[in-house]
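Treating backbone geometry as a discrete language has practical consequences that deserve illustration. Part of our work consisted of pairing the sequence of a single chain with a tokenised description of its backbone. What the numbers capture is local backbone geometry rather than side-chain detail. For completeness, the protein is quoted in full, as a sequence line and a line of structure tokens:
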Amino acid sequence: MKRPVILAFTLIMVGSMLVAGSAAAEAGSVSRGGRLYDKWWKETGADAPTTDHLLWPTQSTNARSGDDTWRCKECHGWDYLGKDGAYGSGSHFTGFPGVYDAAHSKSVEELAAALKGATNPDHDFSSVLDDAAINDLATFLKEGLVDARQYIDYETKAPTSADVSRGTQLFESVCAACHGADGTVLNFGDEEEPEYLGTLANDNPQETLHKERFGHPASAMPATVDLGWSVQDAVDVLAYAQTLPTGEAPVILPETGGEALSWRYQVPLVTGLVLIAAGLVLLGWQRVRRSAR
């Protein structure tokens, strides 16, 4: 097969994957649930809570207050293990259990009911999340959780088994467009204490893995679960991200607020359609050349 034809089929294949991933992201609830778990008011466009969550006073070890106390991850951890995981000590410790075991033993309906206060009326989120959001969050809990201990050494914070070369390729094909080739285009900190992708990957690999898989609330960051990535793909990228600069590179601060949610789906969709069109045009051109001979 000649190179133009191979290129044409490659464009069509990649474009089809992007379109399919975009459709899955639009219809799927697992990735949105993962972002709701992170910071639900950002994802829904609601105002951030100003008071402490009703369950927060039942612990005394985590000194955070206000909207932080409403983040699922603050109680249950980025690894979903709560007191038995990475948040089992340090400033984030609350003593609250994780959600990993419950997610595997309960149905989506039971998890949704728990989010509406069925097991504890103080854990009722129905006043701030509609039924669709609660269902997305419950579906994420049921279908999206992985045991990070299988992929990350909690003492060294390094992946236990990863292909850095593969991670480099995936990063360059997807992540570098926004983060830059060395991960320093987006600064999550400030000019005095910059926090780049490399900083986050080395400091909190569990959070990095979560955001790789489900995206960042109210931003254009793609969820790799919607792109068809496996958990191992995300771990490979995590391993590569840990090789990136952690605070030495020039600072380029991002604009705050994030893009409209629809762009998360529109960008890969439009890109995919353009690639498919380019592939079809190239195939048509090849046929015209052959017929003209």
Q: What stands out?
A: DSSP finds eleven helices and no strands in the chain. Residues 106 and 142 are 8 Å apart (CA to CA).
